[in-house]
Structures are given as C-alpha cells and as structure tokens.
Amino acid sequence: MDLREQLAALEHEQWAHWTRYMLDNLTSENITRWRQQIETPYTELSDEEKESDLHWADKVLNLLEHND
Predict the structure, then answer these.
(1) Residue 65 placed within a domain
(2) Residue 10 within any structural domain of the chain
(3) Organism's domain of life (predicted)?
(4) Domain contains 34
(5) Rounded CA gap, 17 and 56, in Å?
(6) Is residue 43 part of a domain?
(7) How far is CA 4 from the centre of its chain?
(8) Is the pTM for the entire model greater than 0.85?
(9) 42, 53 contact by CB (below 8 A)
(10) Which of 11, 32, 36, 49 could be cross-linked to 45 through a Cys-Cys bond (beta carbons 3.0 to 4.6 Å apart)?
C-alpha cells in the first residue's frame, strides 16, 4: 500500500474508532461536551483531550517514519 493509502486507512481507523465510541456513549451530556470540544481550538483543550489527539498524531508520524 502506498503512503497515501496508508494514511487514508489510518484516517478511516480513527473515524471508525470515534464513531463506535460516540454511538456507544450517546447521551445528552456527552453531546453537549462534544459540541463544546468542537468549538475549542486544540491549544485550549485540556491535557487529557490533547493526549487523545497526540495518540493519533503519533500514528501518522509512525507511518511517515516507516515510509522513507
């Protein structure tokens, strides 16, 4: 698989992970929290929220490092 396809597969994995989580945890409280997170710039997220995004960024970096 070329790098573009690998990145697309990773993006799909991230989307599927989030969608599965959302569907399993769909409460009015979570919807309110998620709407607030959508409007929050990355730099203003809590450390815990940033860690989740960093997890996926690390996966991208790993793909890039192994495709030189």
Answers:
(1) yes
(2) no
(3) Bacteria
(4) yes
(5) 11
(6) yes
(7) 18
(8) no
(9) yes
(10) 49
